[in-house]
Amino acid sequence: MRKPIIAGNWKMFKTVSEAVSFFSEVKGAAEVDGVESVICAPYTTLPALVEAAKGTSIAIGAQNLHFEDNGAFTGEISGVMLSDLGVKYVIVGHSERRAYFAETDEIVGKKVHAAFKHGLTPILCVGEKLEEREAGETKNVCKVQTEAAFQGLSAEQAAQVVIAYEPIWAIGTGKSSTSEDAEDVIAYIREVVKGLYDASVADAVRIQYGGSVKPNNVREYLSQSNIDGALVGGASLEPASYISLVEGAK
Ligand SMILES: O=C(CO)COP(=O)(O)O
Questions:
Q1: Which end of the chain is more exposed for a tag (fewer CB within 10 A), N or C?
Q2: What beta strand segments (E) does the chain contain?
Q3: Is 8 near ligand 1, meaning CB less than 6 Å away?
Q4: What is the residue with the minimal CA distance to atom 8 of ligand 1?
Q5: Cβ-Cβ contacts under 8 Å for 8 (sequence gap 6 or more)
Q6: How far is residue 201's CA from residue 7's CA, in Å, rounded to a whole number?
């Protein structure tokens, strides 16, 4: 049985004091047996959140990392630095990073390797643009992105990757994919993983849906047999809403 995983992606929101205050409100309530709860927060808030999360079952994640351990890369943060802080997860290849920060499939692949090198679990984002969907390219885009990101991973590593299928046209737009459509694409992504490895790896990999997930639709997504969780932007920013998302994954 795959354990459901709800991950909040705060994007570029919250100061340190806002993050700490959020955490004190969700602590306890957003810790639900049988559900993994992860908060992926801005770098500046990570030390305080890791400290606040000690003794809780809520894991803290980053939203990006550089693929090198260190070097002359002004403004970047590496996996060494994140694991040293006690961060457990890292989002890799979010569509906003692919679109605004020129992340290619090759870079995303290197970042997945860097995450494993430092004991971080990658949350790998894949998903199509609106034009690609309209051209019937959704599954092909997800296949190409998934295969590139898994290149060179051992079966043991592959089984630990969390994939987030996020159709780009559904992010922050209030337009969500139907749960049936999301299930269809996610079942296909699982087949792609099976093709790269075997059925046991494909069965172990957790695949989230992301894109306008809210407390009122999270259950519907999670009721689909291949959807193992959600990666949530806007609705993860308010404590009550985040708690409802985690409860909805029970
Ligand atoms: O990009 C997302 C999560 O990574 C989705 O964002 P929204 O939930 O705000 O649509």
A1: N
A2: 5-9, 36-40, 58-62, 89-92, 121-126, 162-165, 206-210, 229-232
A3: no
A4: 233
A5: 38, 39, 40, 232, 233, 236, 237, 242, 245
A6: 22
- Say yes or no: CB of residue 245 within 6 Å of ligand 1: no
Q: Is 216 annotated as a binding residue?
A: no
* DSSP run (H or E) holding 242: helix 239-248
| CB of 231 sitting under 6 A from ligand 1 | yes
In this prediction, does ipTM exceed 0.95?
A: yes
Residues contacting residue 189 through CB under 8 Å, at least 6 positions apart: 126, 142, 143, 146, 163, 165, 207
Distance of alpha carbon 114 from alpha carbon 231, whole angstroms: 21
Verify whether ligand 1 is closer than 6 Å to residue 234 (CB atom).
Answer: yes
pLDDT in 10s for each residue of the chain, 250 residues = 899 999 999 999 999 999 999 999 999 999 999 999 999 999 999 999 999 999 999 999 999 999 999 999 999 999 999 999 999 999 999 999 999 999 999 999 999 999 999 999 999 999 999 999 999 999 999 999 999 999 999 999 999 999 999 999 999 888 888 999 999 999 999 999 999 999 999 999 999 999 999 999 999 999 999 999 999 999 999 999 999 999 999 9
Domains located in the chain, CATH noted = 5-248 (3.20.20.70)
Give strand pairing partners of 40. Answer: 9, 61
Alpha carbon distance 146, 122 (integer Å) = 13
**Rounded (5°) CA angle 168-174-177:** 55
Choosing from 213, 221, 237 the residue with most ligand 1 atoms within 8 A of its CB, the one to mutate for a pocket test is 213
